[in-house]
Write a structure and sequence with these properties.
The protein is mainly α. The chain has helices spanning 3-30, 34-63. The protein is elongated. The chain starts with a helix and ends in a 14-residue tail after the last helix.
Length: 77
């Protein structure tokens, strides 16, 4: 598997996360119970970094071998 193919896997894995975050935001807007609101916010806070990292890794693996592509130090050894 090449890094470009791996990029597609990261992008595909991000789709359900985006959908779930959208659902949680709608639920948050409709929620009235403080405990439910807290739980939804907590879940959003847990999923958001996962989605961010998947997006970053998809971008990195898609362009890793492109000349002049700036690689984030976050994923450099």
């Amino acid at each position: 598997m090449t890094l470009a193919e791996l990029s597609g896997c990261y992008e595909a894995a991000a789709v359900p996360l985006r959908a779930r975050l959208r659902e949680l935001r709608y639920a948050l807007a409709a929620a009235e119970d403080p405990e439910e609101i807290w739980g939804i916010k907590r879940r959003i806070a847990e999923l958001t970094p996962m989605l961010t990292q998947m997006n970053e890794l998809a971008e990195l693996t898609a362009h890793y071998y492109d000349r002049g592509y700036y690689r984030s130090e976050k994923y450099t050894l």
